[in-house]
Amino acid sequence: PQTPQLKNIIITHLGDLFPPVKALLSNFLLKYVYRKIPAWDIPSSVPFKTTLAKGSEYAFHKVPLVNTDIAFLQYTGGTTGVSKGTMLTHRNLISNLQQADAWFGSLIVDDPNHQEIIITALPLYHIFSLTANCLYFSKIGGLNVLITNPRDIPSVIKTMSKFKFSAVTGVNTLFNALVKNPDFAKLDFSQLRLTLGGGMAVQRAVAEKWQQITGAPLLEAYGLTETSPCVSINPANLHLYNGTIGLPVPSTNVAIFDEEGHEVPIGKSGELAVKGPQVMQGYWQNPIETQKVFTKDGWLLTGDVACMNEDGFLRILERKKDMILVSGFNVYPNEIEDVLARLQGVREVAVIGAPDEHSGEVVKAFIVKDNPNLTESEVIQYARKHLTPYKVPKEVEFRTELPKSNVGKILRRALRDSLHSS
User: Is the peptide bond before 229 cis (omega within 30 degrees of 0)?
Assistant: First the structure.
């Protein structure tokens, strides 16, 4: 099918709603001094301020709303394919807020003179930040401290030092960068009661270091754009990192299916599927992709390989598209990354499958070093001590940085593409 063409393109600038002089100055500095705005040309685009001026000419007419009306076209991250517009209704989002409130309500201080403060180091257009930080903390009357450039870790820490924050959300790469900066340990963590990690797997080494420094556990949660986003969270009273994504939130059903669509027994792995009031209507103008992710009886297929233990805790093993097949054995990059992250001298690590004529694929690790003297043989030797032989990386490549999405998630797809292009 043909890709729908955009009819209206509205262009915004950071200083659009500033007073005139400040607007001109901020836009000038960003474009010509700091060079944060590249040259661009989008024909027939309309400036945001022009749109506001034109809109002010019309009278407001209240539109009746029902809970099945679409609230957002929330686009997926596109880290494993083309981004799709997820149709999230008012009911989807309100349900997820109520689920979050049932989960975290006990952590909120019941005092009209107290205000909860959350550090928001994810862009608010990302579904995790949109629901958890913006909507939920607005619901409870909290204060959002927006970090506009989370990659500038010294600036992040400086901003955090100005607040007695009670909550932090983020991805593993952010937490990792913070705990490796000595200034982070100097912050005031006396009010911190909730640290929530999502978007990618939280590594044990990072979670344990976080708790050692802050005194608060790093709770791993799981969700998707398609589920508004939350599916499962670790209990708010968890004392230690447990390597799972927790339990399903209220009113949420989960199942794990094999390749034939049959539910697997407890402890066995398969594709995680979800039902609940937070599950999307489908993908905007994309019935083919919508049909692919829903079973005939309404389960949303997540594309994640998972298993459940006897206590109901879920563990994500890997994205199906990221699994490595070594001589017929399934290898999960998350597991190897979690091990290699504990090796002293490793700052960041990503693992993918590299083509191999003998075994189909072999494990390849990409590493950003803390210690410039760290060698490939040391990495492989360490892996051999902690992993079964077929999981040990056969290739190790050191890089100065790893490709990341706009929320800091490491992009394995970009690493795989670099193999094919080299």
Answer: yes
Rounded CA gap, 374 and 366, in Å? 13
379-409 pLDDT, tens digit each: 999 999 999 999 999 999 999 999 999 889 9
Task: Quote the distance between the C-alpha of residue 221 and its chain's center.
Answer: 10
Pairing between strand 329-331 and 324-326?
Answer: antiparallel
Average the pLDDT over 110-125 and give the result: 93
How far is Cα 347 from Cα 374, in angstroms, rounded to an integer? 11
Q: Is 143 helix (H, G, I), strand (E, B) or coil?
A: strand
Does the structure show a pLDDT above 90 at 118?
yes
What is the rounded distance in angstroms from the CA atom of residue 422 to the CA atom of residue 416?
Answer: 10
What's the gap between Cα 319 and its chain centre? 13
Predicted local distance difference test score (pLDDT) of residue 422:
63
185 band by pLDDT with thresholds 50, 70 and 90: very high
The pair of structure tokens assigned to 189 is 């963590």
Looking only at Cα atoms, what is the longest distance across the chain? Answer: 71
Tell me the C-alpha distance between 174 and 155, whole Å: 13
Strands 270-275 and 282-283 turn out to be unpaired
Report angle CA 207, 354, 258 to the nearest 5 degrees: 70
Residue 86 tokens read as 């997820």
Pick from 230, 192, 268: which is nearest to 93 by CA? Answer: 230
Give the per-residue SS3 of 45-60.
CEEHHHHHHHHCCCCC
Contacts of 168 (CB under 8 A, 6+ apart): 118, 119, 121, 192, 194, 195, 196
pTM of the model: 0.88
Nearest to 303 by CA among 213, 409, 224, 209: 224
